[in-house]
Amino acid sequence: MRNPITAKITSLCLVLLLTLGISAKSAATLPGPEDNVRSLYATLLATMKDGRTLGQSGRYGRLAPVVDRVFDVSSMTRLAVGPYWATLSPAQQQQLVDAFRHYVTATYADRFDSYSGQQLQVTGERPYNADIIVQTKIVKSDGDTTTLDYLLRQNQGSWQISDVYLDGTISQVAIQRSEFHSILRRDGVDGLVMALNRKVDLLGRGVAKAS
User: Is the pLDDT of residue 209 over 80?
Assistant: First the structure.
């Protein structure tokens, strides 16, 4: 006769092994850092090729979902705002995150507006403490090359971009922190939200170019 305690232990072990197996399989199928940057670049390339037909608003609409998925906009906003972030109410923080999300999407829609033989290349990755830096190049048809490095960190189990480095050294978040600080000090959080929304509006109307 089978010992009921032994049977229960065996059953629990099987459930545990099955759960671990499912978790390992799920982890193995999650997109890695390079996969997410390649996904961004694939969308950018397709958008560039249809860029003139789509226009700024069409490019924005196509890029918005991938920006939401690939970028950790909340983290980027918090880092760009700096210590001032802790003084804001949850509603003000959300206002800034929403405005910054629109700004990031509008900026990419403006910068990648047309296709003339450019190549968007993911060239590798390297560890950066607990995070990963994905190295990329944008190669124009004349051979001129721009290096862009993306800092990705895990956010709720997925790898998301939290900063972009031009030429491998110039932090986009650091530049924005300097710009945001002067606006916050002069005009407060409402002024910063208005400034970001105004920039998005100007980009959408083709009046301004992304800096």
Answer: no
